[in-house]
Write a structure and sequence with these properties.
heterodimer; A: 112 residues; mainly beta; six-stranded mixed sheet; B: 119 residues; seven-stranded mixed sheet; 0% helix
Chain lengths: 112, 119
């Protein structure tokens, strides 16, 4: 089955700096890669997603890059703000299965 | 974006009782919903896939007789934890797959979660 590895497990940055979270996956059939933000006590919120026919996608301060050959994808947050502090999860999914395989999460702390 | 609700948001029950959790897609129809469980400081673990009008598909290690899933309509799936025990205490989260126009079709939107505490 699919195995999604996520690094780092914790990340602390100063406000205004950039944050990068990296994930690798094992199943070459995976072609959908969403990123979720989860605040304490709440459900995950989709922040950006990408399909395998696209190498990069950007939405304001958030961008995701995908290297399908190397089977890794990354989340980039620029100009971080304290409200970006949360746990971020990457996930991978093949078309046929639809179920998401999650990474273990990255706890991001943005300090003022 | 698409909205998914869960009810209740938290529940405390005695050991041996059953608890029902509802998951609703509010502004879209979902033929497929998913149930996850999350322990503190851990990732989401898929428990089962709920398909409207058919039996749920359970992940390995998840007891189907203990975690009853009913997907009776295109907007509602329920998870019933039967004969709950303290080890069932967890954060239960559902998601619904939005197959509508504008999304990828695989996009899953999550509910706010239900925190279950079994005493």
């Amino acid at each position: 089955g699919e195995n999604v590895e996520q690094h780092p497990s914790t990340l602390s940055v100063q406000e205004g700096d950039s944050a990068v979270i990296k994930c690798t996956y094992s199943d070459s059939a995976s072609n959908y890669f969403p990123w979720y933000k989860q605040e304490l006590g709440k459900g995950p919120q989709l922040i950006i997603d990408i399909r395998s026919n696209v190498g990069e996608k950007k939405d304001q301060r958030i961008a995701v890059t995908l290297n399908k050959t190397a089977k890794h994808f990354s989340l980039h947050i620029t100009e971080t703000q304290p409200e970006d502090s949360a746990v971020y999860f990457c996930a991978a999914s093949p078309n046929s299965g639809y179920a998401l395989n999650f990474g273990k999460g990255t706890s991001l702390l943005v300090t003022p | 974006g698409a909205v998914v609700s869960q009810h209740p948001s938290w529940v405390i029950c005695k050991s041996g009782t059953s608890v029902k959790i509802e998951c609703r897609s509010l502004d879209f129809q979902a033929t497929t919903m998913f149930w996850y469980r999350q322990f503190p400081k851990q990732s989401l673990m898929l428990m089962a896939t709920s398909n409207e009008g058919s039996k749920a598909t359970y992940e390995q290690g998840v007891e189907k007789d203990k975690f009853l899933i009913n997907h009776a309509s295109l907007t509602l799936s329920t998870l019933t934890v039967t004969s709950a025990h303290p080890e069932d205490s967890s954060f239960y989260i559902c998601s619904a797959r939005d197959q509508g126009a504008g999304g990828f079709g695989e996009t899953q939107y999550f509910g706010p979660g239900t925190r279950l505490l079994v005493l």
